[in-house]
Write a structure and sequence with these properties.
Length: 121
């Protein structure tokens, strides 16, 4: 007989657990108190566009997320892009992605907007 499992909450944890358990043959029901699924990673609609409630990044080095995308068969829905993330502290830019590396090293930057324009155009 198939074992039944109830999961409370359709955030990332509940949904990914439900996915794993159903792959293992469990009969899964997920209960969610909000209208939309996704929890902290859910979206809301404005002007016909879906926006995240909070900003989120996935890194290609995160093998768990990359494997989950593959298992879900969603590879073709994901576009991987460079990020423009960095930190300015004590008159220096520090990279949080690869984008600002060369500017930190040779200090040829003038301002962050100029760097981002240069890299994204
Ligand atoms: C500003 C911000 C930025 C973040 N950036 C990143 C990022 O870049 N990369 C990343 O990997 N993570 C990021 N995170 C973390 C990520 O959002 C969370 O780790 C993840 O969404 C948590 O998922 P969860 O399912 O554990 O919890 P939640 O998303 O909180 O989901 C819990 C769900 O359970 C439901 N629920 C609660 N109680 C009940 C109940 N009694 N009955 C029914 N349903 C219930 C809630 O409504 C909710 O939908 C960020 C978080 C924040 C706030």
């Amino acid at each position: 007989m198939t074992k039944k499992v109830a999961i409370v909450g359709a955030g990332f944890t509940g949904l990914s657990l439900g996915f794993d358990l159903s792959k293992s043959g469990f009969d899964v029901t997920i209960y969610e108190k909000c209208e939309a699924i996704g929890g902290l990673a859910s979206t809301f609609e404005t002007d016909g566009q879906k926006l995240e409630r909070f900003y989120h990044h996935w890194f290609t080095s995160d093998q768990n997320v990359m494997t989950l995308i593959k298992d879900l068969g969603k590879e073709s829905s994901i576009r991987i892009r460079n990020t423009n993330t960095g930190m300015y502290y004590a008159n220096n830019f520090y990279k949080l992605s690869s984008l600002l590396k060369k500017y930190v090293v040779d200090k040829s930057y003038k301002n962050i907007d100029e760097i981002i324009m240069k890299e994204t155009n």
